[in-house]
Amino acid sequence: MKESPLKNILADTLTVFWGDWLDLRVRILPVAAAGLVSPVIYILAFGLGLGSSLPKPAIGGNYLEFILPGMVALSSMTISFSGTVFSICGDRIYTKTFEELLLLPVHPLALHTGKMLAGIVRGLLTSASVILVAVLFTQKLVFLNPLFLLVIVLNCAVFSGLGVIVGLTVKSLESVGLYNNFLIVPMSFLGATFFDPATLPIALKTIVYLLPLTYASIGLRAAAYDVTKFPWYIIPILLGGAIVFSLIGARQFSTQQD
Fold it and tell me: d(Cα 198, Cα 145) in Å, to the nearest integer?
């Protein structure tokens, strides 16, 4: 009996992911700690420093609690994106092993999804370390719930999917720096990490709500502190973004020459 195409794609996806996992599993601690420095600095500078002089936010007991979910969103975005980009660039530009991957009799969507899964795992490892820090600072376990985890996974999927596309596009590591400086860094500060976008003027609010990190930050705050007011539209938006990037990445894999 002939196997269904979907089952074949799933099997191929796990095969591609397993190849990255074999490399990733020996570096679990460095990967988990890789995105921890910036969030801890932001927590100390903004949460404990600046936050002590700010009024109580609309959600969370104080400003420190307000930014902690944003720190999880920020770290998962950064590591999912950069880890995926550098992994693919390393194979394409330096080790020259990427051609072997392209020669595999594997569906392009499976190639993209397998690489994206590896990026999701990287993001989750770093997110776990930031959540641990958040629990230590607040002495609360509100960050440990299924809805919170779901939003993190979707956020990782969006940015690892974007990372695959960028990794297939760039010609050098200098080009990666341009994407980071003009895309990831601005999003880190404009993606509702440090503020409530509902308080912004209409023009700026329009820009902020175009950023996927905004939806992750808002969703994580609601999942942590007020599940009854969780904005459920966030789930299809993040899921839709991950699917769109997967389709674009699969198309790019199908035409990739190097």
Answer: 25
